[in-house]
């Protein structure tokens, strides 16, 4: 699908301002044409046997494997992730593609006995139609794969709007789908902001499913706008995730988990550990170990092999993160390390923020309640497991949670009582696997899940089928 808009925008590296590419800024008319192409392709694609759809996706997975190094390198430049994390982003796409391609030979329904003689009952999954996928910049290959691959294996077609910060990666993703043999029109890409392109997609009557990963505020607007045409709306929104460290925890293991979860991807994950809830008996020791570990982390471009922390995505993100350092200090939290923009040497060319830790944080402070989406975490002291779980749950989000403990009873209580879609025991808050559902409770979303079998529910509708071979009219739910 050719884009007709004449305006363009640049994608630049957050590490040094390098120009990655120039991309067309799509118009509302481009969205209409993309939807029309997807709708036309749907008439054929939905009838391609699901195992054959799976074969195309298996080819795509193998192509992704061959392109992994190139995509990883591009991601270190366009998005800013360090090389190991960027490679993991691509690997998630490979993993979920292999997993979902296998669904082409499953897509299970159910059969049940009928209440009447000589009658057959069954249910099947059917595709919904055209899917509008609106994806963020922080997982620029993984998240499109979480949305597109389940949608495609189920027989839907797609219009993809990637984030304007990472268009080159999205473009390459779609090119590789084409290389795998996906028919024309099955996946279409449009570029641009949410107020123009995204809003047109959400309101378009021929898009039957909207799947969005973004902020809570954007999710509410999408849900409201999608209601006009009774769309299926899948929302994956924010998080304010906590790691609980009990007094019997392995502190060195806990520190490793906190550093990875709070500062990996420069804290720009919906699953980032922006709170650490520590038992009073280990609070001081944990604090010292954590500061020592964090101050050893090296900031730099993601493509350099010794970089631990890359840049944040853009100037607006940098300013927002820095504003929360002031908020935390003004609220009375004690700044242990960080809290400043890194400007020395080549770091001044990009958007680098020093990993930041606040101590003596009250659970109701803004730095303990609001999603910062940067390399900032808040230490909160508690007396026991009950208080720890209460504090962990005392937010509006419910995505990921974690507890470090050697006590199996405490672990199982946390598994039961933490209000989150994901709970880790003796691990950080990040690291989901593609064969389990991913998503959260409360304001983190609207009940749907990505990945695992649960993803199929977003992109299919159930049809119940009754076959009566009795040769006579049999009336169900009628008393004789």
List keywords for this structure.
single chain; 480 residues; alpha/beta; Aldehyde Dehydrogenase, Chain A, domain 1; Aldehyde Dehydrogenase, Chain A, domain 2; 2 domains; 7-stranded mixed beta sheet; 5-stranded parallel beta sheet; 38% helix
Describe what this molecule looks like in 3D.
By secondary structure, the chain is of the alpha/beta class. 38% of the residues lie in helices and 20% in strands. It has 14 helices and 19 strands. It has helices at residues 28-45, 50-78, 83-102, 142-153, 167-179, 194-203, 216-226, 251-263, 283-294, 315-331, 366-369, 385-393, 408-417, 455-459, and strands spanning 8-12, 19-24, 110-113, 119-127, 130-134, 157-161, 187-189, 207-213, 232-236, 241-245, 273-279, 334-337, 356-359, 376-382, 397-398, 400-404, 422-425, 441-442, 460-468. The chain has a 7-stranded mixed beta sheet, with helices on both faces. A 5-stranded parallel beta sheet has the order 7-6-5-8-9, sandwiched between helices. Helix 1 runs parallel beside helix 6, helix 2 packs antiparallel against helix 3 and helix 3 runs parallel beside helix 4. The radius of gyration is 24 Å and the shape is globular.
